[in-house]
Amino acid sequence: MKSYADETAYDDWSLVVPLKPLARAKSRLAPAVGGSLRRLLALAFAEDTVAAVLACPAVRDVAVVTDDPAAAGALAALGARIVPDAPAAGLNGALAHGARAVRAGRPRARVAALNADLPALRPAELARVLSVAGQFPRAFLADAAEIGTTFLSAGPGAELEPAFGGASRRRHLSSGAVEIRLAGVDSVRRDVDTGEDLAAALALGVGPRTAARWVRAG
Predict the structure, then answer these.
(1) CA-CA-CA-CA torsion sign (77, 110, 165, 125)
(2) What is the predicted pLDDT for the residue at 7?
């Protein structure tokens, strides 16, 4: 008899990445970098995240849920599919909407939600997370602080049921999702909300767009 993992052992993941309008994105970063640079960095984070996801061999495609025209143009140029945030129901509403958009074309797609603020993301580390996630109907990865969540997956026949925001690790555990515990996937866990987070991501090694933006900012 085939196991669940046998039935999903294909490199066909669709990732859903949500992005607020840049005017409102990364508000907690403003005290450290200022308003103008905050907006530019928010876009650079998303560009580096999406580029790394598309470079991951386990990923088939990326759906970015956003209503920001500048971000939509930049991320579409990288190869992402843009899904307008029609529900306008917040982060989790956007993620559920993106998952539905993916499965409208591929009903049994393996879907994962991923934060847009992972500028140090490494494709190989994401591939390791996806490999483990594929063994379970639903799985998630906690952020570096082990309070929030940066990644949540749903296999064929399972709903994503996103509960991101704040102490989402506890909520995802309570919902029955399996927590992925892997060493050496720091880049998938290192989201950036504050100046301290940004310093940690820079130390880890950010992608080229974030690095260039940071250098230009002096």
Answers:
(1) negative
(2) 37
Q: Taking Cα atoms as reference points, which of 210, 16, 21, 25 lies closest to residue 114?
A: 16
Torsion of CA 72, 216, 49, 126, to 10 degrees: 170
Domains located in the chain, CATH noted: 4-217 (3.90.550.10)
Q: Where are the beta strands (DSSP E) in 147-201?
A: 149-154, 178-179
More confident residue, 120 or 4: 120
Task: Give the pLDDT of residue 11.
Answer: 63
pLDDT at residue number 146: 97
Please state, in angstroms and rounded to a whole number, the distance separating the CA atoms of residues 45 and 118: 6
What stretch of H or E contains 203? helix 195-204
The residues pairing with 137 across neighbouring beta strands, listed in sequence order, are: none
165-175 tens-digit pLDDT: 999 999 999 99
Closest CA to 153 of 141, 168, 167, 166: 141
- Tokens 């998630």 correspond to 140
3-state DSSP helix/strand/coil % of the chain, to nearest 5 = 45, 15, 40
